[in-house]
Amino acid sequence: MGSKKNDKLSRWYFGGLASAGAACVTHPLDLLKVHLQTQQVGKTSVTKLTVQIIQQQGVLALYSGLTASLLRQLTYSTTRFGFYEVGKQSLETPGHSLPFHQRLLLAGVSGAAGGVIGTPADLINVRMQNDIKLSSELRRNYKHALDGLVRVWKEEGFLKLFNGCSTATSRAALMTIGQLSFYDQIKMLLLQSGVFSDNPMTHFLSSLSAGAIATTLTQPLDVLKTRAMNAKPGEFKNMMDLVLYTAKLGPLGFFKGYVPAFVRLAPHTILTFVFLEQLRTNFGFLPNTQ
């Protein structure tokens, strides 16, 4: 584990680039997840929903809101990965990695910061993805993510851009804890076992496990966040009203869309960390102190 490859460190912006690359692949799954979360009655399977969208609007409809998804990753993920990497590299000393509880705390703070900064793009992302299921007169028809940001600011006010910020921030903190700190911990345990080396297989297993943990931690908040962002003005009085509305479906109402959420988040998490490790290996930098 003392090779140059293992000594390389990520640059602060690698996480944002890796997440954006992963989003290009997993965007259709994210779109399906939003559709399932915003339906209150009836049950539509993922397969039926996919076929329905393609038949009615074509394959490209599965990429509705891609610009917003990319903008979200370049704001939200760049911030959380950047804070986490810079913090970890500042606090760690050669030969002594950060204790797990400190990585948990650092990931939580990094995720919260990313959640706040990424909320406007997340709002536009949810709306653009949900647009295709609405009748033509109800659609918002944002041309792209920046058009959406400008129109929300002009038509609904600047603060509307941060609608759902509290749930988005809480979710982002849990997501970052599940993904970043658990990825690092699981990868470290695999490497210490002596069976695994720092290669794509280890990255795959670590990120798959981290994706499962992150999905379970964040799904209830993800459902609430999606509903809050997609709500009409005045539809819910406050967050408790939204919680009670969702609770009418029973406990599983908070895990609506769990399977597509995991099916989306697992590949997204795996691709993000595989891309990140490749960026680190090929374009990372060696620490000053060896």
What does the model show?
71% of the residues lie in helices and 0% in strands. It has helices at residues 4-7, 14-38, 46-57, 66-91, 100-131, 145-156, 165-192, 200-230, 239-247, 258-283. With 290 residues, it is mostly helical.
Features:
mainly alpha, 290 residues, 10 helices, disordered N terminus, 0% strand
What's the helical proportion of residues? over 70%
Strand content: under 5%
Residue stretches low in confidence (pLDDT < 50, at least 5 long) are: 1-5
Specify Rg, calculated over alpha carbons. Answer: 19 Å
Strand element count: 0
Overall outline: globular
Ends distance: 13 Å
Quaternary class = single chain
H and E order:
HHHHHHHHHH
Largest sheet: none
Mean pLDDT value: 86
The helix tally amounts to 10
Structural class: mainly alpha
Layout of strands and helices, then pairs:
Layout: H1 4-7, H2 14-38, H3 46-57, H4 66-91, H5 100-131, H6 145-156, H7 165-192, H8 200-230, H9 239-247, H10 258-283
In short:
This protein has helices spanning 4-7, 14-38, 46-57, 66-91, 100-131, 145-156, 165-192, 200-230, 239-247, 258-283. With 290 residues, it is mainly α.
